[in-house]
Specification:
With 304 residues, the protein is α+β, with helices and mostly antiparallel strands. It is built from five helices and 22 strands.
């Protein structure tokens, strides 16, 4: 019993420590979400919970309600950055990424404007490498906690048994499970939004679908790819349209790197792609042609 009581006390201590940097974010109707005081005067929360750009209010751990200004959004990784005035609030204390392991206790923390702190506990069920969200956002590491994110928990932190913050929880990137955006992803996004007001991802202005290249075509054109992507739509006046891409073109490479599915294109259109020129290799009318595309900056709400 003494070991169980000790564990219970340690968990409560971890929650108390981490919750000093957790705020309630009032930016939608009916209910608040949670946010983390990431650095002095800067709060990070889940973008899908922020339904308005103005009249945003934060409830701080000491009960004060303060206005917040929206600095910027990155829907690609489901993060929004807010700025507020007010000193004395604890900032996040981060867990070293190398300390994470599958099976470790993980605690999700939330704060509401009326009920205060809430917590739910589980374990880290999976760790993986870099991945792309369905909107093309780059995430440095897969962190999947095995716990329930109740209403209001998105935007709050996942913490370890010492109360150190692992990352930001969100239910907005998967319908099946909660995910945690690692601190490295949040840091990069915060820097981008504070310095540029947005994340400049590359944009082609096309609709695409994976397609298998017939064996006889591969042999005739000496193509190694078994799959590529076919252009199904071209947005008028977009980068691809300006470069002369057409419906039915089959994209097999960008700057010499093989394109075998849509995810390869999204990976190429990374955070630093906007503004560059890319050499696109295409199958068109039975032969391979090369077209230079000036990659644009992805407009808001665009996926490709």
């Amino acid at each position: 019993m003494s070991a169980l009581v000790s564990l219970s006390d340690d968990i409560a201590t971890a929650v108390a420590q981490a919750s000093g940097a957790v705020v309630a974010v009032d930016a939608r109707r009916r209910s608040t979400s949670s946010g983390v005081h990431w650095r002095e005067g800067i709060v990070v929360t889940a973008d899908h919970t922020v339904k308005r750009d103005a009249e945003i209010e934060l409830t701080l751990p000491d009960g004060r309600c303060v206005p917040a200004e929206l600095v910027g959004r990155d829907p690609g990784v489901d993060l929004t950055v807010l700025r507020f005035e007010g000193a004395g609030l604890r900032t996040a204390d981060f867990a070293p990424p190398d300390d994470l392991a599958v099976g470790q206790i993980a605690i999700a923390i939330a704060r509401s404007d009326d009920d205060g702190v809430a917590a739910t506990m589980g374990v880290i069920s999976a760790l993986g490498g870099p991945w792309r969200t369905w909107q093309g956002g780059r995430v440095e590491r897969l962190i999947r906690p095995d716990l329930t994110l109740y209403s209001g928990f998105s935007g709050g932190p996942l913490v370890d048994g010492r109360g150190r913050i692992i990352g930001i929880n969100t239910s907005g990137l998967s319908r099946q499970t909660a995910l945690t955006l690692p601190a490295a992803t949040v840091d990069r996004t915060v820097h981008s939004l504070l310095t540029r007001g947005g994340t400049a991802r590359g944009y082609l202005g096309v609709g695409m679908q994976q397609v298998r290249i017939p064996e006889d075509v591969r042999q005739k054109l000496k193509i190694e790819n078994e799959e590529a992507v076919i252009i199904l739509s071209v947005e008028p006046d977009g980068p691809a349209s300006s470069a002369g891409l057409m419906l039915g073109d089959v994209l097999i490479a960008l700057d010499g790197s093989a394109i075998t599915d849509v995810h390869d294109v999204l990976a190429y259109l990374s955070d630093n792609a906007a503004g560059r020129k890319a050499k696109a290799s295409l199958i068109r009318a039975g032969r391979v042609v090369e077209v230079e595309i000036a990659i644009g900056e992805r407009p808001a709400e665009e996926a490709d």
